[in-house]
Design brief:
heterodimer, A: about 500 residues, about 55% helix, disordered N terminus, B: about 220 residues, Rossmann fold, four-stranded antiparallel sheet, 12 strands, about 40% helix, elongated
């Protein structure tokens, strides 16, 4: 792994989004910096040129005045005086013959002085400095023709401007260079950091994939996008873990609750094989075995039904249904069972239908399960009774089934809704411990819930069904009662 | 009875055919939708048992086309485990009954036998008679040996359904479906208690029992004499 990982690691750094982003930003900023610097340089040069031109013009005007007043002699004196001042302009006066009459310039290319144009232009010249040495310089100068064939050159050294341009150019190179260095550094920093976080996420996911569902992504507390991602993923993992735990518990329960009747069946058949002597005995054993098998099938059916309901299968039709009719039907269906158990079963009378939107089959099965439970538990006490009532509370239909049996201790109320949970540890009473799970699943499918309360004495189970939008033109729903009923197999 | 089973799952099909034969029926098997359609259209069967998911051709389309061709043979649809149970779709395409897997064979057999009676003239009878027990569907009058028996409306419907299928076993789920119009599995013996009440009214004071319990299957009303 380390050997094969070394080379791709370097390549990987180049393949990162951070690298691409850094490269793009670097290019953009380099272009921007270059533009900015060129812009500044160009403008500054122009400004300097304008200033030089203005100064030269002023000087020429002044010198022209001196010439007008005192002729070439005065001009020469003035120039001679000005030339000695520090930071002086460049002055050259040439005679009509072409000789330099006066000036502070060692040499000027002759073609410059012969030019007829009086425009400002850069000219190379040699300056007379203190040591009398001539140095090559560049100046912006203008040449004027004066009366009497004299020619006057006035200029200003632009070494400063040149210097300025050089400084700017240097600044440009420095800036771009620094930008590249900083860009590379930040890219390495960012990609290292990002890669590290992503690598940690990948590592954790691999760990989770390999079966350790308890693993969680690291949250650094910086509240950046990686933290937010990690928090979301952790929440997802927690949900998955909870679901898996639920699944495991259910499968453990299934294993237990299904194994018991299977074992019983097996030993019964085994005994019959070994001992049964006549046909009658064999038939009895077979009949009992058949009943056990039916019971198992029913347990499976109930489990499948809960699973299907919890999954909210799209095949389940919702339609306008009359809750009062369902309650009446359930009372009618369970009345003989209740009577046999000595339980008084009654529904609080309703005035007319109580309409709600839902699945008739599932809701009636849920109510049937509640009634069934209530009858079983109420039958343990004196004068047992079970009452079903319907009422609307805050936009929800509440179906309450109350009994005056022993009730459920508050601590156990949440637990009894789970699959296969039976408070009767000895499991002496019939049932699979799936009834309330199905009721809860049906409630959830209708976006409602199952509430277990103390009926003092006894248990009050309330199926809360929030009011729903009526399904629009659904052919199945429009068919009404029978089809809604038929939607569930 | 001649029964055509259209089912692709080898094990289920073999088991079904064997069990149907043991129950005294003639059972033919088709392994896919095409073959099933060909057999159903060329031969005459009393009942078709059709799986919804079939290779080559979907079970529902087989039924629709048979119905389109004027074939009125009763059809029992089997739906696979885990499939979205769309009973409505199945019944709308022309199926007569619908059974979801896993099912008990006794349930399947009872439903097949009840389906086979659909096309018999007895279906249209307004009076049913089993031994000395008589039921008039129009006047809603029940009597045994000339003596009037008073039944609650639901008891009447229960007896009516049993007598309509006299001699045929009906299961608890079939009773709940046809008498109460609910399609769920009541976890306790609610139907049994209703039956024993009914029995108390029609059989109690008579020597000959007409309403029998068939262990592991359901109930049947029949005059054994």
């Amino acid at each position: 792994m380390p050997k094969s990982g070394a080379r791709p690691a370097r390549l990987r750094l180049l393949r990162t989004t951070a690298f691409k982003l850094a490269a793009v930003y670097l290019a953009v900023f380099a272009v921007f910096a270059a533009f900015l610097i060129f812009y500044i340089a160009k403008n500054t040069t122009q400004l300097i040129t304008a200033q030089v031109a203005e100064a030269v013009d002023e000087e020429v005007k002044d010198l022209a005045r001196h010439f007008d007043v005192g002729g070439i002699g005065r001009l020469a004196r003035v120039i001679d005086r000005r030339s000695r001042q520090p930071g002086a302009s460049l002055y050259v006066v040439v005679t009509p013959a072409g000789d330099i009459l006066v000036g502070n310039v060692a040499a000027v290319p002759p073609e410059v002085l012969e030019s007829q144009s009086s425009a400002l232009r850069p000219i190379p010249y040699s300056r007379l400095d203190e040591e009398g040495e001539a140095g090559e310089h560049v100046a912006l100068a203008r040449v004027f023709a004066m009366p009497g064939g004299f020619r006057l050159l006035v200029g200003r050294d632009i070494g400063e401007r040149q210097h300025f341009v050089a400084v700017i150019r240097q600044a440009l190179f420095l800036t771009v260079g620094l930008m590249v260095v900083l860009g590379l550094a930040s890219w390495i920093f960012v990609s290292r950091r990002v890669l590290k976080r992503i690598d940690s996420i990948s590592a954790t996911s691999r760990q989770i994939m390999s079966g350790d569902l308890s693993g969680r992504l690291e949250v650094t507390g910086t509240a950046d996008e990686f933290d937010r991602l990690a928090v979301s993923l952790n929440a997802m993992l927690a949900r998955i873990e909870a679901l898996m735990a639920g699944l495991k518990q259910v499968s453990d329960n299934i294993a237990h609750d299904l194994k018991t009747p299977l074992t019983r069946m097996r030993s019964r058949v085994e005994q019959a094989l070994a001992r049964a002597e006549d046909v009658e005995q064999c038939k009895d054993t077979l009949a009992a075995t058949l009943e056990d098998a039916d019971q198992l099938i029913r347990t499976f059916d109930a489990l499948l039904m809960i699973a299907r309901t919890e999954a909210g299968s799209s095949g389940l039709a919702f339609a306008k249904t009359d809750a009062a009719a369902i309650v009446a039907d359930m009372v009618e269906l369970y009345e003989p069972v209740a009577e046999e158990a000595g339980v008084t079963l009654a529904a609080e009378p309703q005035e007319g239908p109580v309409a709600f939107i839902g699945n008739r089959e599932l809701v009636s099965q849920a109510i049937a399960n509640l009634v069934d439970n209530a009858i079983k538990h109420a039958s343990e006490v004196e004068e047992p009774r079970v009452t079903i009532s319907l009422c609307r509370v805050e936009g929800a239909l509440e179906v309450a089934v109350s009994d005056n049996g022993p009730g459920i201790p508050e601590a156990d109320r949440a637990r009894v809704v789970e699959r296969f949970v039976r408070l009767d540890e000895s499991r002496s009473r019939p049932g699979f411990g799936l009834g309330l799970s199905l009721v809860a699943a049906v409630a959830k499918l209708h976006e409602g819930h199952l509430r277990l309360e103390d009926a003092a004495p006894g248990l009050r189970a309330v199926l809360v069904l929030p009011e729903q939008e009526e399904p629009e033109n659904e052919p199945d729903a429009a068919q009404g009662k029978t089809d809604a009923a038929a939607a569930l197999a | 009875m001649r029964i055509l089973v259209i089912e692709d799952d080898q094990e289920t099909a073999a088991y079904l055919v064997k069990a149907l034969k043991e129950a005294g029926h003639i059972a033919d098997l088709a392994r896919d939708g095409e073959a099933g359609f060909a057999m159903a259209s060329s031969e005459s069967y009393d009942v078709l048992v059709v799986d919804r998911m079939l290779p080559k051709r979907d079970g529902l389309s087989v039924i629709s086309e048979l119905r389109g061709n004027g074939d009125r043979t009763p059809v029992l649809i089997l739906s696979a485990l885990g499939q979205v149970d769309d009973r409505v779709k199945g019944l709308r395409s022309g199926g007569d009954d619908y059974l979801a897997k896993p099912y008990a064979f006794s349930e399947l057999l009872a439903r097949i036998e009840v389906l086979a009676r659909r096309n018999t003239p007895a279906e249209a009878d307004t009076r049913y008679r089993v031994g000395d027990l008589e039921l008039d569907r129009l006047s809603r009058h029940v009597s045994r040996d000339g003596e009037t028996i008073f039944l609650q409306p639901r008891e009447f419907r229960l007896l009516e359904y049993l007598m309509k299928n006299a001699g045929t076993v009906v299961t608890r789920t079939m009773l709940l479906e046809n008498v109460w119009d609910y399609h769920f599995d009541p976890q306790t013996n609610v139907i049994d208690v209703h039956i024993s009440r009914l029995r108390g009214k029609i059989d109690k004071n008579f020597d000959r029992q007409l309403l029998h319990t068939v262990r592991g299957a359901g109930y049947v009303i029949r005059d054994d004499a």
